[in-house]
């Protein structure tokens, strides 16, 4: 029982030490090692651990803000990829995202790496593998899954011929006045 208590006490002390770990109390060598590890993760497009984020926040606020911007761009790409309906659309989203990164952006290397990591993760998912290749394949798939009567009604509908104003005009009363 006493051994368990000592183990729990040591574990508690270790956790508290890690939580209260102040990067300013680190030696220069430890700080440099942590900075190099963070830089390597950013170059690989990986996410930082909470400890690394806290270190970055306390030692280099500008780099922390840059990291947040990189993550926001990568998360935005991830959301767009999840909403894609075809592999062709996925490729368009990827091309647009990669082309949107300015050549003059100082964090371009990190942004591209983060986006490539998101792309690699998304393409490995079963959701991506289930997507039809092209818009034409998607249309075929929809037609096969619809009952016969409904497909014709939707094919006859042309959104360019419809307007909300036309509905209002059609509902207005007409007055026949002899001339």
Task: Describe the protein in words.
This protein is mostly helical and 179 residues long. The protein has one domain. 73% of the residues lie in helices and 0% in strands. Helix 3 packs across helix 4 (61-83) and helix 4 packs parallel to helix 6 (108-123). The radius of gyration is 28 Å and the shape is elongated. The relative contact order is 0.08. The mean pLDDT is 82.
- Backbone structural class: mainly alpha
Strand percentage lies at: under 5%
User: Low-confidence spans: pLDDT under 50, at least 5 residues?
Assistant: none
Shape: elongated
Order of helices and strands: HHHHHHHHHH
Give me the secondary-structure topology.
Layout: H1 2-19, H2 28-44, H3 50-59, H4 61-83, H5 87-99, H6 108-123, H7 126-130, H8 135-145, H9 148-156, H10 164-171
Helix pairs in contact: 3-4, 4-6
Summarize the structure.
73% of the residues lie in helices and 0% in strands. By secondary structure, the chain is an all-alpha fold.
